[in-house]
Design a protein that fits this description.
4 copies of one chain form a homotetramer. Chain A contains 9 helices and 13 strands. The first copy, chain A, is of the alpha+beta class and 429 residues long. In chain A, the strands form 5 sheets. In chain A, strands 11-10-9-12 form a 4-stranded mixed sheet. In chain A, a hairpin with a 2-residue loop joins strand 6 and strand 7. Chain A is globular, with a radius of gyration of 22 Å. The two termini of chain A are 41 Å apart.
Chain lengths: 429, 429, 429, 429
């Protein structure tokens, strides 16, 4: 997409839509909810709101808008996340210590930057357009990534509060049918051989999805759906968390030291398992996909089940073959304006399904550069490449991912012990 | 003081005055300021507001008011500070992770408890009065202690924010006269021999001030005023922070590891020293007492100056002899309602002065039980006695201490490395 | 290899040769050198001597020798490394706290087990042979792995001692020619396409080298030799350790926190770089391969040089194509009996060389299971599979690897920040 | 004591006797026992042997012996403990990583320094004598302090080894009479009022015992003997380690985090309590004083018993009044040459006893300067004064203290959580 007199209105529409969604996600919060950073991974919601704005200010307004006056001379220090090229910044672990700027001041910051962005779009010179569009698109994609993090971080902040508050009044909880049991999973064949994976096309994709390249895989079989809560409970009741045999060595150290015994957000009350959802504490839906588990748990479950996880190449090739539809439940999308269930739901389809838009599926692939990978030049080169170590690839997008942010080649990545994203398990054999 | 039909209105007046002052201290804050816990020592302001309320609920309403219905069944878990006898609680280091209850909910909690307290006072049975008055008095003293902590904790939260916001608009900053230099300190004689220290009387005093008992001290001389910022800067410019000779071994380890080089809140900007005060960044008043220094720094300064700190017995005996007036600057007092300087001020008096109400004076006395000390029974026994190890006694009260909370026998105590209270230095020889 | 009446004498010969070499490696040590564990990765030499013995005792003697009486009932607790299936054990981080058993007692333990092993081999039943040979072979391979660790751990213990003692008197130091400069590296073509990697054959290979499987790679070019000390110094003098641009994000955190500035064992004395070798401190040979660098440093060097590291598949395919000879310098080999240089040497060959037996070459491949990988059953299943996370693959073997332990398919693995092995850099483009 | 032609032979005799005793204490050790530092408090035995030698080299030979050539130029770096004035040194926590110099080299170092000391004494100039004697005496006292630490550090190293080896063959174990029960303790009156404590006299005493000064104490009663193992077990069986009420707040944190449940070296085997002694594991003597407990445990025991610990002034005044004899069991003394029990023994005397030479008695007094205290000039000023914070005073000397190192005014000091010295409990009321 290139900005032309015709496309400009469109891109402003996109800009407004995406920027508005960020504020919509934060709308149900109280000012106090915007402050804590209960673990280093979880950033304060107002920080997300400001950091995404700082991104436009830093990479676009300061570069393209002549005479642009930054909103506040210290915001670059406060809201730079990890760009060494952009200078000093608040240490990541200290984000939760900052009560100021307030939410109100940050909303003013957003309004100011939005206004200046509109002004810039109006007066953009033709020779700036190509470069502008590159940063502009990345700015929007970046904000969408933070929308997903906003949802998972809000869930963490509220879900670890002893009061277990719900995120927003008026949503309908997921209806749970504890009587019915979903049919046994089946394993569907995927044809091996030489395949091409990675992004091909003209739309946006991150540098880490490129270049497209050939890989050879063996024939294998893929589970037609995600592992359910009921299935995961079997693993738990079979002593899964107490038997080193299923666990990687580093994982077992954590299981013992931190006394893992269930997915994040599960808690046992009077002998019954409940889970915190954005609706508050709920009974566990036996047929819904298990979520909020680490790679370590996904791998241990697979060992226990006598199966294995897929590699990212296998996953992408299976998607090429089965052409799944996107799950329609993604709640961070436009639909967030309508009260609806804020959690991953059971899905009773019979073909290969739940591949995209339910939970991120842990793969047994490290997050490394594709053959021929080139980092972006300049500060954007810090976006993806510098994290290519000690992280595992997840595929498929989750119910918290913006719908138009999901695609088959998308590579998400997290350390193997992280659980606070909507993550899940799909098996292969 | 015992509650009688006559005293009851008085005690309610006290109660209302003290409770209102807590809320007055918090009034200038934004909701976001109520949340962070940037270091373990500093509690979120709303936590102080709720915890002092929980104290009345737990130790008075639940005991004395028939049929009392707690405001929320989880608040005991959330707002119990350290009373093992009262049950489980949020770990101290996790207070800053709790966005809920909100400030508004906590103000509702305060209103509810206040109302129930009034009701209780109305219907108190004569046989309850003695016991009631004991807890009631402690509840108020406890809240006054937290008022001082509120001020120092707010100062920490705002003063460590990169924006260095001021606490409240409209206060006059301390007027700084950088031309004038206060006269050299003189050392005034204190008569040694057998003296009695500790609390004697019928008013309130903490258990740790009792019993009064005899101590023998040698004749000594006491500095007639506090060490000033200008004097402390001489120590700094003489390499005080870079010479192990002045420091206790444990202190030197911290100086090196944490790169200490000035009191807390001082920062050098363009070659000039400024300090964060509740009015924002200010030039340093050379004649004002140095404050926000640890025991370790006070002791190192004394070594450098060829003097020493007092013991707590010496300090109390000097006060008996010189009968100092309370400094009238205490800003956490009723005067908080009037705009006034929110920091310790220079004082140009010529007799022995600044002993009470300016800064807490570090003594070279460990916080240990007085001979014959008895802990309170029950949960209140956890109030003071269990902290009698690895802490140093401070005397005199500070500009942040409520005026009617300052008395010559008062023993405050903190670990030797803490700096965030309004602490200062007085020398002896 | 299967034990038959004919092979038995051979296997005992192997056994004796390998067991003797362990003791030969330790022979120059003083008893005191056998005790410390200066970092968690480095085990005390006597621990290696006992643990390799425990391996034979636990997996062979206890299983195959009727009425076998363990040498000491507590040695299983003391010398089990990480086998959860075998029971409790001394925590890894506490190995250096154990002065007992003494070296002498451990040599007795070795002699006892060796004697029992001989007895067992004598009386082995035909139906035991297959199973016996499997464990026996692994026991010897295991001991060879520990021989390499012995050398690198001894180097660490001696090389971090302020006295920088040499390992053994009488060895000739590497001759360093600081005048001569090796020719520029050239990049040799490797043909891409579908290739098979992984172990095929009847000899021993670890489970993690199997199964052999097809991979597709692009054409690429491989550096004909290893990166030299002189080249690495250019990176250093060009500010390589002070420019975040070359480093992975996690690496940069370490570089700054731990103030990395050169390979391990390098130190600057009077403006001159020296390195600790097993001969003591030596001037750095500009033409020798740089060694004792982490994956992070290898990757940063490659970024600085505008090149990249190989993947393990690329490396193995290049070896198939260029069929390099094993470097003859491996000092942990039989040659250890002859005084010779105990370090990696410069090599002036002009074809693709130094691929095997000089330094382990870091690849940009995570240590993960090969497609179709199956863990061993039982305790041996803990040998490799459970470490397949957060480690990078190294290929080629080093000058410290026993010669008959090096093969093209061998996968070694270490976390990306480790430096104490003989590791090095080969680039690709 | 001043060196004169007559005293010189005597001082050499003292020197030889004390130096020989250090080596005698180490004689039963294996070379390997000399290396570990299992916790930061415990130094490797060979380090003690070298450090005490370094003390004579640094403070005497380098100053008084013209042309003295240090034994090794790096030993100052390796064996300086904490003297900032003497320059850089190996970090305390790294002492256990040093296998070199070996025990043999250190014995050579000792012999070299001893020889040079004799030479110096021969040629000492009259005008050097006073200064020399001061350092010489401190050097010997210093070595005696390390003799006690040697014993407790050896006990730690051997006693935490899973093999629980005994220190020396041939000693008789303490005979334990589990049938007999020692009579109930009685509380003997001590007369209060004004008393003088601190060292007065011409012999040696540390700076921290001076100046003698007056203190006022109340009348009190002192337990006539030490608390026994049987009594302490009652505390344990009454849930002492599981009831926060008896513990200081900081103590309770440790009890819970580290799961304290008995004195150090106690372990329960098959339901029976044993303790590691230098004879190996032994049944616990119910009548012997409990030992290896922290201040925190002593204080908790006192709370449980409804009593309290003494202050150091009370202790010293009680000794003035009761004039106890030194226990004759001190095993680090000359008697170490004879096989004898290496542990604190039951003592059935009926007067006030066990005050000196059994176990160090924890007092509820912080280790602070006496009124009028002056630190030594120069490096020796670092000996005592810089540790006067966050430590508690212990009095009386233990069975591991050299006999001629025990005196009523002696102030030993350790942090409140330390247990590895021979410490015990005496109560007051």
């Amino acid at each position: 997409m290139r900005a032309t007199p015709d496309t400009i209105p469109d891109i402003l529409q996109d800009y407004k839509r995406i920027r508005a969604r960020t504020e919509r996600i934060c709308a149900p919060l109280r000012a106090e909810d915007h402050v804590p950073q209960p673990v280093i991974d979880v950033s304060p919601p107002k920080w997300h709101m400001a950091h995404t704005t700082w991104f436009f200010e830093t990479f676009i307004l300061k570069k393209f808008l002549l005479g642009y006056k930054p909103f506040h001379h210290l915001y670059n220090y406060i809201f730079n996340s990890y760009y060494e090229s952009i200078g000093d910044r608040v240490l990541r672990e200290n984000r939760g210590f900052l009560s100021r700027p307030t939410v109100e001041e940050i909303l003013d910051y957003r309004a100011y930057v939005d206004e200046q962005m509109e002004e810039l779009v109006d007066c953009l010179l033709p020779e700036q357009e190509a470069e502008f569009m590159k940063f502009f698109t990345i700015g929007l994609q970046h904000e969408q990534q933070h929308q997903e993090l906003l949802i998972t971080d809000i869930k963490y902040i509220l879900g670890h509060n002893p009061l277990r508050p719900e995120y927003e009044k008026g949503h309908l909880a997921v209806e749970v049918d504890t009587e019915y049991t979903i049919p046994e999973a089946v394993y569907l064949p995927v044809k091996g051989g030489l395949h091409t994976i990675g992004y091909i096309g003209e739309s946006f994709a991150w540098d880490n999805e490129k270049p497209a390249h050939q890989v050879y895989i063996n024939d294998f079989k893929i589970q037609n759906r995600l592992v359910t809560n009921a299935e995961y409970m079997k693993f738990m009741y079979d002593g899964g968390y107490h038997n080193f045999r299923y666990w990687l060595s580093e994982a077992w150290g954590l299981v013992e030291a931190e006394k893992w015994e269930a997915p994040m957000y599960w808690q046992r009350i009077d002998g019954e398992w409940l889970q915190y959802t954005l609706h508050g504490l709920q009974y566990i839906d036996p047929n819904a996909p298990v979520t909020h588990i680490s790679f370590f748990e996904a791998d241990a479950y697979a060992s226990w089940a006598g199966k294995r996880l897929l590699t990212e190449a296998e996953w992408e090739i299976a998607v090429q073959q089965y052409k799944p539809k996107l799950s329609m439940q993604a709640f961070a999308d436009a639909e967030i304006y309508q009260p609806q269930p804020l959690d991953v739901k059971a899905d009773y389809a019979t073909t290969c399904h739940q591949l995209m838009g339910d939970v991120w599926e842990w793969t047994y692939s490290g997050y490394f550069p594709y053959p021929g990978y080139k980092r972006e030049e300049g500060a954007l080169g810090e976006y993806n490449g510098k994290f290519m170590i000690n992280q595992m690839v997840m595929r498929g997008g989750s119910c918290a991912t913006p719908m138009d942010h999901i695609r088959p080649t998308y590579r998400n990545f997290f350390p193997a012990d992280k659980k606070w994203q909507f993550t899940g398990i799909r098996l292969a054999e």
